[in-house]
UniProtKB/TrEMBL annotation:
Residues 1-16 form the signal peptide. Transmembrane segments: none annotated. Keywords: Glycoprotein, Hydrolase, Signal. It comes from the Eukaryota. GO terms for cellular component: lysosome. It comes from Parnassius apollo. The lineage of its organism: Eukaryota, Metazoa, Ecdysozoa, Arthropoda, Hexapoda. It is an enzyme of class 3 (hydrolase). Its EC number is 3.1.2.22. This is Palmitoyl-protein thioesterase 1.
Length: 295
């Protein structure tokens, strides 16, 4: 009888004290206004009564948050968020995290670089994250104007110039399969968090502390090229046609991030949905993400 009472008490406690959730928006979006991630925050609060949701604002205003998605170096963004999360009293017992598009690889950067200094990060959900980078930028999401053309031109012709890496966020996860040597040498963010230059054991240990890393790929994604990067897949080196799944890459075979270990232990989860970039039915999210990983 005491055993069952204990189980009932535990269930009631969990339901009354849901695990907090941290959100990191993508390129061309902001943290909090109703037509962007603000509406998703309200959705989570409705589906999980009493949950605390921290939708990250990178900067001191919505305008700064929007601009920083293009012009604040990811290394600075990751450091900024590490400090925010460490100081948030609502997260001290641990939290789950959801990254949208580029926010997903930036969240992974947080896990790897400062996860050992933060409260327990339980599950990380990557929605359309570009974990092996991108090679192509067909659309800019919310920015359908001259800025798009400017960004495209810089990436196509000068992504690995030092000043471009310093000034344009998307350049730091530009991955040119035709010049892997240059990518590994000059990429100031992605090559580092993917352990391309040297093995950082802290990155591996922190990533493996997660309960689950859930990778969601959008099968009809028209923004991310190649869309397989959302599952850590990418072009085979030296060309831009043949695609290799994660399991056939050196990243996996040499286990440079511990992803093979995570997969073998059931911590690396691959999900897909038929929609375009970040387009998914609420019912799908509830059944595939919310119930298994956020409750």
């Amino acid at each position: 009888m005491k055993k069952w009472l204990g189980i009932i008490f535990l269930i009631k406690y969990i339901l009354a004290n849901p695990t907090p959730i941290v959100l990191w928006h993508g390129m061309g979006d902001t943290c909090c206004v109703d037509f962007s991630l603000g509406s998703f925050k309200l959705f989570l609060e409705k589906e999980i009564p009493g949950v605390y949701v921290n939708s990250l604002r990178i900067g001191n205003s919505t305008i700064e948050d929007f601009e920083n998605g293009y012009f604040m170096h990811p290394n600075k963004q990751v450091e900024y968020v590490c400090n925010l999360l460490a100081k948030d009293p609502e997260l001290q017992d641990g939290f789950n995290a959801i990254g949208f598009s580029q926010g997903a690889q930036f969240l992974r950067g947080v896990v790897q670089r400062c996860g050992h200094k933060l409260p327990p990060i339980k599950n990380v959900i990557s929605l359309g994250g570009q974990h092996q980078g991108v090679y192509g930028l067909p659309r800019c999401g919310a920015l359908e104007h001259a800025t798009c053309d400017y960004v495209r031109k810089l990436l196509n012709y000068a992504a690995y110039y030092s000043w471009v890496q310093h000034s344009l966020v998307q350049a730091t996860y530009w991955h040119d399969p035709l010049d892997e040597k240059m990518y590994k040498k000059r990429s100031q963010f992605l090559a580092d968090i993917n352990n391309e230059r040297e093995i950082n054991e802290t990155y591996i240990a922190n990533l493996n502390r997660l309960e689950n890393l859930v990778l969601v790929k959008f099968d009809s994604d028209s923004i991310v090229q190649p869309r397989e990067t959302e599952w850590f897949g990418f072009y085979a080196p030296g060309q831009a046609e043949q695609l290799l799944p994660l399991e056939e890459s050196n990243l996996y075979k040499k286990d440079r991030l511990g992803l093979r270990k995570m997969k073998e232990s059931g911590k690396l989860v691959f999900l897909s949905t038929p929609g375009d970039h970040l387009h998914f039915p609420q019912e799908w999210f509830v059944e595939q993400i919310l119930k298994p990983y956020l409750l």
